[in-house]
Amino acid sequence: MQAKPEPGRSYTTGAEEIEERVLQLSMARGLDEVFAIVREGARPLIGADGVTFILRDGDKCHYAEEDAISPLWKGMRFPMQNCVSGWSMLNRQPAIIEDIYADPRVPHEAYRPTFVKSMVMMPVRRDDPVAAIGAYWSYRHLATEAELRILQRLANAAAVAITNVGLINELKRAQQETEQAKDAIIMALGSLAETRDNETGNHVLRTQRYVRALADAARHRAPYSAQLDDETIAVIFKSAPLHDIGKVGIPDRVLLKPGRLSAREYAIMKSHVEIGHAAIANAARHLGACTPFFEIAQEIALSHHERWDGAGYPQGLAGDAIPLSGRLMAIADVYDALVSVRVYKDAIPHADAVEIIRSEAGRQFDPGLVDVFLEIADEFEAIHRRFADDPETRPRA
Ligand SMILES: [Fe+2]
Ligand SMILES: [Fe+2]
Hints:
The chain has 397 residues and is of the alpha+beta class. The chain has helices spanning 15-26, 31-46, 84-91, 108-111, 145-195, 202-218, 230-239, 252-255, 263-270, 272-287, 292-303, 324-339, 350-359, 367-375, 377-386; strands spanning 50-57, 60-68, 77-79, 95-97, 118-124, 131-137. It has a six-stranded antiparallel β-sheet with strand order 3-2-1-6-5-4, with helices on both faces.
């Protein structure tokens, strides 16, 4: 049992320390930070032998954190009606108790195994208490005005922190919802375009995964490492489903024609890259800002049919003048077309597709990326199997 402090001994570590704790508390961004501050710094400020932080949890009081000379009730929950923290929160006022065994608000059986003789319970957020801070003494002690003031300040700061934590969580939830809605819309739009010429929308799921696998493997190699970081790869992954969005503007007689396209039809078909690019640019204009997402989505839509040798479309760009995102998508898109059934062709085996891509290094595709592809071709096959359109269209081993 701790001895009573000598008269005149300072039980705080100074006004600066209090300010520091109050500031830390009010700036906490999570409940765990609030707990840590209570655990590590509150007790010396008050000069108590124990401090607890109690959260209201429905009709229970949850003793969430403590710092004391011997264990109190950390982790336990008591009915609001049955503990001093509950009384303090329900009555919106502090409970200042000099002798706990003389006070009917105290559940004596819960206190008997502890060191506590005197205590103060301070509600957090007086108007609508959501928590309480308890201070405990191992000797009989009537809390002084100064101690009550410090406790009150800590409670006020904790109230600010808890309100902020609530707001931050709400904000995070809203951001997450927006992000999820965005992803779902991108997927829906992407697969809408694909389902017009494919039986299923799995092509968009697969191509975005091939592209990510290729980018993940390429990021450790020059010259790609300078252009590929986690964030860029994540944006490429998210915008990849929009690569063929322009196909919604291609008439069925061209898009669904089983035979060979005439020169005129082929020209119409090729326009899907510009239609897609324009649609995404339009969306970005509406937003009033071209975020990395829109920038890369436009790049991929416009450049995924360019060829390394300059014979592609629409601009006839060559070599690394073609955006990296478009060069990645070109390999992903062609691999998937080769191993899948289309209206105009059967699927070919994975090994044959790998050979075709190998033979196109430096012609249709960036030779450096083809090297990367050859290293991870198994991953492409696994992705194709995992997101197969139906068993018959899976690549043969
Ligand atoms: Fe395309
Ligand atoms: Fe595609």
